[in-house]
Amino acid sequence: MDRTVIAYVVYLIVSIGLTVWVARTLSRNGRIFLADVLHGNEKLADAVNHLLVVGFYLVNLGFVALYLSGDETIEDTRGIFEALSTKLGVVLLVLGAMHLGNVYVLNRIRRRGIMEREQLPPVAPQEWIAPTAGA
Asked: At what angle do helices 3-37 and 42-66 cross, to 10 degrees?
């Protein structure tokens, strides 16, 4: 079997495995965060979480597929490791960037919700007093 094909197969197996592992980890641990961002609305948190996971899979697996092809022919075993380290390193960087992007956006939404909750008075006003002319 051609060494380039071996590198492709290993790259696909490891990349897809990493993508599935990261997506499951983010889904499991991100659900709690989403519930807080969405003010305890569990149903909406589950729906948003599922949509984020689907988008994560589409973007990352699409990138893995596009990044599969290479122009060089792998001549020896060392070349397999060099090609795999480059390709997997880029895939890991993309996975990390996607994760940081998701956390950043969700944190911004969470902060906005906290600010909106803090703007409401803790107790409704009991009466209204008209301003005086001298003040």
From this structure: 160
d(CA 115, CA 107): 12
* Tokens found for residue 88: 């997997």
Say what the pTM is: 0.70
CB pairs under 8 A, 24+ apart, for 104-113? 106/30, 106/33, 106/34, 106/37, 109/37, 110/33, 110/36, 110/37, 113/37, 113/39
What count of Cα atoms within 13 Å lies in the side-chain half-sphere of residue 122?
0
C-alpha to C-alpha distance for 65 and 59, rounded to whole angstroms: 10
Q: Detail the DSSP E strand segments found in the chain.
A: none
Per-residue pLDDT 10s for the chain (135 aa) are: 688 888 889 989 999 999 999 889 888 888 888 888 777 888 988 898 898 889 889 998 998 898 887 777 778 888 888 888 988 898 889 888 988 887 887 788 778 777 776 776 666 667 777 788 765
Of 43, 49, 9, 60, the C-alpha closest to 26 is: 49
Neighbour count for residue 66 (Cβ, 10 Å):
8
